[in-house]
Amino acid sequence: MMTNTELIDLAASVVKTHRIKDFLCGDVGSAVLSRSGKVYLGVCADLGCNGFCAEQNALGSMMTDGEYRFVKVVAVWKDEQGIVHVLSPCGHCRQMMMDMDKDNLKSEVILDHDKTVTLEELLPHHTCWRKQ
Ligand SMILES: [Zn+2]
C-alpha cells in the first residue's frame, strides 16, 4: 500500500502551471491509487469553456484503463514558492467518485500527510445515482 506522502509526492510531480491569458492549467495535480494497485495521475484545466479538476483527469485515465474503483485519492496545489498544499475534492468530484462505483464510499481521501477520511465522510446524506 502506498503511503499518503508517496501519493502526495506523485501528485505534486505532475504540477506544471501553464498560463493562458487569465486562465491557469496544470497548477493542481492528482494521484489515484486504483484497486489493481496502479497509480493514475492528472492535472486540472481551468479554461474559458468548461474545464476539469485534476481528480477528474486522473480518474478519467483510470476509467480509460477500465478501472472504476480506487483505494486512495489526493489532489495538491503548489503555490508560487513551490510549497505543496493538499486540497479536499470539490463537490462535483466527490459525487463523481461515488457514482463511478458505490464501493468508493469506503475509499480514502487524503487530506494531509497524516490525515485521511473516507469518501463517505465527505458525502453525508448522499444519493448515489448509479444504483448498484
Ligand atoms: Zn473537483
What does this structure look like?
The protein is α+β, with helices and mostly antiparallel strands and 132 residues long. The chain has one domain: Cytidine Deaminase, domain 2. The protein contains four helices and seven strands; from the N terminus they run αβββαββαββα. The chain has helices at residues 4-13, 54-64, 91-100, 119-122; strands at 18-20, 23-34, 39-45, 70-78, 84-87, 108-112, 115-118. Strands 1, 2, 3, 4, 5, 6 and 7 form a seven-stranded mixed beta sheet that branches. A hairpin with a 2-residue loop joins strand 6 and strand 7 (115-118). The longest helix is centred in the middle third of the chain and has 11 residues, at 54-64. The chain binds zinc ion. The site of zinc ion has 6 residues, from helix 3.
Helix vs. strand class: alpha+beta
Unreliable runs: none
Q: Give the count of structural domains.
A: 1
> Residue share in helices?
25-40%
Q: What global shape is seen?
A: globular
**Rg result:** 14 Å
- What characterizes the major β-sheet? 7 strands, mixed
Query: How many strand segments?
Result: 7
CATH class identity: Alpha Beta
Return the CATH topology. Cytidine Deaminase, domain 2
